[in-house]
Structures are given as structure tokens and as C-alpha cells.
């Protein structure tokens, strides 16, 4: 796998992890209101946080297995995963920013 492509994929994984952490810490307000989230934040977490977590798990599994794309189709599939990771992270970050 191309080193720059692999680096972009790893950066997108870390960005997605950071978006989930920021979402949980900043939207949830553990320290003020308790552990209960409001309805909209719960729905956003289910629709965007769940798939984000699944894509993070799939990406780390792909890296630990040592998968290397052998054709353009593999690079296209990996690009779709990277795009999905960044898109979901962007939405979670924008939702946190909307609430602040």
C-alpha cells in the first residue's frame, strides 16, 4: 500500500476517534446533568456514532491483517471507507459546534 495513502487512512481513523470522544464529552455534559443525554444527541449518536465505531473497528482490523489493495478496485474501496470516516467525523464535529 502506498505510504501516503496509508497515512491519510490512519489520520482519518484518529480524526474519527477524536470526533466520537469530543461528542461524548461535550454534548453529554457528564459533569453537570448526569449521564442522561437528550433525545437529539442520542439519535445523532445512534445514526452517526455507531457507524463511525464500526468503520474504526473495520479499518483497524484491515490494518492488523496486513491487507494491501492489489488493484484499483481495492484503492476505490479504501477511498470510500476514508471518505465515510471523514464525513461522519465532520458531522459529529459540526453537531458539537452547533451546540456550543
Write up what this structure looks like.
The structure is a single chain. It contains 4 helices and no strands. It has helices at 3-28, 30-33, 39-65, 72-99. The model has no long low-confidence stretch (mean pLDDT 86). The chain is mostly helical and 100 residues long. Helix 1 (3-28) runs antiparallel to helix 3, helix 1 (3-28) runs parallel beside helix 4 (72-99) and helix 3 packs antiparallel against helix 4. Helix content is 85%, strand content 0%. The termini are far apart. The protein has one domain (3-99). The longest helix is centred in the last third of the chain and has 28 residues, at 72-99.
In percent, how much strand structure appears in the residues?
Answer: under 5%
The overall strand count is 0
Mean pLDDT across every amino acid position: 86
Helix/strand order? HHHH
What is the count of helical runs? 4
Shape call: elongated
Helix content: over 70%
Q: Structural class from helices and strands? A: mainly alpha
Radius of gyration, in Å, reads 15 Å
Main sheet: strands, sense, barrel: none
First and last CA, distance: 40 Å
Could you name the ranges where pLDDT drops below 50 across 5 or more consecutive residues?
Answer: none
When the domains are counted, the total is: 1
